[in-house]
Design goal:
With about 150 residues, the chain is mainly alpha-helical. The chain is about 65% helix and about 0% strand.
């Protein structure tokens, strides 16, 4: 009788696996980011549904919190996919540890924040622009931290 070993514990090393890990980690980071934004909105006196509604591109009058939340989650997942591939390329598939992943993620979150602040496609009067920059920056840092930590542990 031939004994087979369990190979599930082997480290994933393909770009596709890194992309899927990043996609899932980005969704997790997006949830953490949304929690920070909703909490900061609550502290500012806004209702819990008003923050996700700001991410709905249909406009302030007809904005849906569900649509805005789903769009935010989808964008977070796609950015996480990109992070997963970048993280794999930086480490060339070697595990770097959760702390290193979190630090790289913080840098990634900061870059995303700077890009988001400079996006010309978001009109000046858009509801998303009403989020205070300090809250938006903190939320992006939390996104990067969580996404980096999750990618590094997979």
């Amino acid at each position: 009788m031939v004994r087979t070993e369990n190979v599930i514990s082997e480290r994933r090393s393909t770009a596709g696996d890194a992309a899927v890990d990043g996609l899932l980690a980005g969704a997790g980071g997006g949830i953490a980011m949304a929690a920070v934004l909703v909490a900061s909105g609550l502290l500012a006196g806004a209702g819990p549904a008003s923050t996700p509604a700001r991410f709905d591109p249909s406009g302030a009058g007809t904005a849906s919190p569900l649509t805005g939340g789903l769009i935010h989650l989808a964008v977070s997942a796609v950015y996480g996919l990109l992070f997963g591939v970048i993280y794999r390329l930086i480490g060339r598939g070697r595990p770097a540890g959760r702390a290193t992943g979190a630090l790289i993620g913080l840098g990634y979150g900061l870059i995303l924040f700077l890009i988001a602040q400079g996006l010309a496609s978001i009109p000046a009067g858009a509801p998303m622009r009403e989020i205070p920059a300090v809250h938006f920056a903190l939320a992006h840092l939390v996104y990067g931290l969580v996404t980096g930590w999750l990618v590094a542990r997979s």
